[in-house]
Amino acid sequence: MLPGAIKPFHPGPRPPMRVVFPRPALLALLVLLVPLTACGNGPDDDPGPVEGAAELRDRPARGMAWVIIGPDTVLAEVADTPELREEGLMFRTELPDGEGMFFIFEQEETLSFWMRNTFIPLDIAFLDETMEIVDIQALEPEDEEMTESNAPARFALEVRQGWFQEQGIEVGDQVRIVFGR
């Protein structure tokens, strides 16, 4: 060792650590922990994916929603403000299969839509507060005449024209929504 060098400190062997619980405390701990093992966090308790949809523990991006109709799922932009509802799908030149726009209104009432500055043919499904489809209509590009729901509705889903028919989706079908985070 060099003069002036610091000699490293090496403590002697340590006794093994032991945690000691008083017997009543150990019993109380077991009583609390054993029921937690049955709470269902294991892989066998996973309900798995909804048929035709991504797993529900995953979520779409903020401002998006999965609109699940039976085995079919639409990835939809959410229009939940007056500005977003007014703009809708204006100025789009395409809308891929399985995508659309989901409109949310404050209350259930007769809803009106037009196709000003909308360049693609669309279908619209109107949904009531129970998320049941109450009406489906075809919308033609740039038609400025108002299209009204045939029944009171609180929600609407726009998709590519023909998509609902191709999927066998009709009035009376129930819809589930998974909103983005």
Describe the structure.
The protein has 181 residues and is α+β, with helices and mostly antiparallel strands. It has a domain of 116 residues: Sandwich (Jelly Rolls), CATH 2.60.120.1140. Helices cover 14% and strands 30% of the residues. It has three helices and nine strands. The strands form two sheets. It has a seven-stranded mixed β-sheet with strand order 6-5-8-3-2-1-9. The chain has a two-stranded antiparallel sheet with strand order 4-7. Strand 1 and strand 2 form a beta hairpin. The longest helix has 14 residues. The N and C termini lie far apart (63 Å). About 22% of the residues have low confidence.
What is the H/E string? HEEHEEEEEEHE
Give the strand order of the largest sheet, numbering strands 1, 2, ... along the chain.
6-5-8-3-2-1-9
Provide the helix percentage: 10-25%
At CATH level 2, the architecture of the domain at 64-179 is Sandwich
